[in-house]
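can u do me a favor
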């Protein structure tokens, strides 16, 4: 194993779930450029398929609340909480009506529009990783 592949193995893995390609690209690029490995999914169903195959690798799921298909972001967070309880979930939405009332303890809600520094700080905290790119606590 080379030094760079060993370093890559130690990087937290973030699963980005977003149906809008531009927003998914923005989030994935931000996270990759800050030192995270990123897996992308367009739907919650695809995210669950990825987790079934690679759930032991994924540290954080960053998902839009509204995703196409049968499963939305809140249901995705509930399924992850039961099946992969060590995986932290960050949910985001630009719709004020999407404010969670029963979000599980290991999930965090981030209203859109979010700031890059806020996302990096929350992902770092959730993954237990420090990239050096974000400063201070979000709380």
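np, heres the sequence
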């Amino acid at each position: 194993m080379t030094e760079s592949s060993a370093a890559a193995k130690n990087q937290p893995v973030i699963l980005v779930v977003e149906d809008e390609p531009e927003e998914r690209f923005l989030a994935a690029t931000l996270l990759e450029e800050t030192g995270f490995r990123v897996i992308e999914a367009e739907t919650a169903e695809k995210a669950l398929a990825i987790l079934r195959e690679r759930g032991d690798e994924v540290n954080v799921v960053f998902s839009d609340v509204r995703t196409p298909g049968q499963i939305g972001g809140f249901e995705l967070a509930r399924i992850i909480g039961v099946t992969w309880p060590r995986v932290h979930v960050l949910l985001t939405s630009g719709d004020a009506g999407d404010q969670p009332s029963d979000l599980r303890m290991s999930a965090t809600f981030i209203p859109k529009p979010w700031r890059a520094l806020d996302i990096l700080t929350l992902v770092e905290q959730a993954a237990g990783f420090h990239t050096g790119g974000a400063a201070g606590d979000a709380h």
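The longest strand covers residues 58-64. hope that helps!!
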